[in-house]
Design the sequence.
């Protein structure tokens, strides 16, 4: 386990999946991440790469070949190497290897940089095409924040606050986790969504092209919460396991396959392309209070 810290926050990260394990506020002695209770969901903040969500039939095609790949890709199950570390930031790096090449025929370098400044954690994804052909990929975040956060509060005391008033439909998921063809009306001229566990009984709330670039988790009892900023991420998932005490706010550069996808990786909705020698950078930030 690795840690970085400043006078307000201490965060812990495991090498497996470069997964965030703890966001601890030193002043209020509060842990902000979910406990990873395996009875509900045994993860805390998996990194999604080189796909986001699930693939139709659990596979994709590229240049006439079919490759299997599980939901959210393989990075979350790989051991990353620490390639940079100081008091306030740490970088984890994953390179293509023989194992990844068997299911994902691309050369890449994928780095995740965690950095602290005051009460803000910034998480940066850096994808480099180290091969000689176009790299096709998605990347996304899946942090699970504890709700209720503070003893004496309930899940239903909390709400989501969007940075802008939204008129946004939610894209329902099939039983196989694929995106259906039409959205359902959901947010109507509001920046406020009360949190109830029943919201997630049909799986994640999936949004495309929200106006907002921030979503906060707040509550009606005290001033503690989080505010996540996600510039440059066109898709958003909000999810919790059934009746669990957490909410995931998931900015994505990519999305699950649709029910009518062709399966061709280069035609996949939300896929990113990167030419040889080029780099892709995205960052999200979470303010802890």
Sequence:
């Amino acid at each position: 386990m690795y840690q970085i810290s400043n006078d307000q926050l201490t965060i812990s990260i495991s090498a497996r999946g470069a997964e965030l394990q703890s966001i601890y506020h030193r002043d209020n002695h509060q842990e902000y991440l979910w406990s990873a209770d395996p009875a509900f969901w045994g993860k805390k903040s998996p990194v999604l790469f080189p796909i986001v969500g699930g693939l139709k039939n659990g596979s994709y095609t590229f240049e006439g070949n079919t490759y299997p790949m599980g939901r959210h890709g393989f990075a979350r199950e790989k051991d990353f190497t620490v390639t940079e570390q100081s008091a306030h930031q740490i970088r984890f790096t994953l390179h293509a290897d023989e194992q990844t090449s068997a299911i994902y025929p691309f050369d890449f370098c994928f780095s995740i940089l965690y950095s602290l400044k005051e009460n803000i954690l910034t998480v940066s994804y850096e994808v480099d095409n180290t091969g000689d052909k176009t790299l096709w990929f998605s990347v996304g975040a899946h942090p699970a924040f504890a709700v209720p956060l503070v003893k004496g509060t309930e899940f239903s005391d909390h709400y989501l606050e969007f940075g802008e008033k939204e008129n946004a439909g939610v894209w329902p998921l099939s039983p196989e986790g694929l995106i259906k063809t039409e959205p359902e009306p959901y947010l109507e001229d509001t920046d406020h969504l009360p949190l109830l566990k029943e919201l997630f009984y049909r799986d994640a709330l999936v949004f495309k092209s929200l106006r907002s670039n921030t979503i906060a988790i707040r509550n009606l009892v005290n001033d503690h919460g989080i505010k996540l900023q996600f510039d440059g991420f066109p898709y958003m998932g909000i999810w919790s396991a059934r009746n669990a005490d957490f909410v995931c706010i998931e900015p994505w550069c990519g999305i699950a396959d649709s029910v009518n996808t062709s399966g061709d990786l280069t035609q996949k909705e939300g896929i990113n392309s990167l030419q040889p020698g080029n780099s892709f950078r995205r960052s999200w930030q979470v303010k802890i209070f």
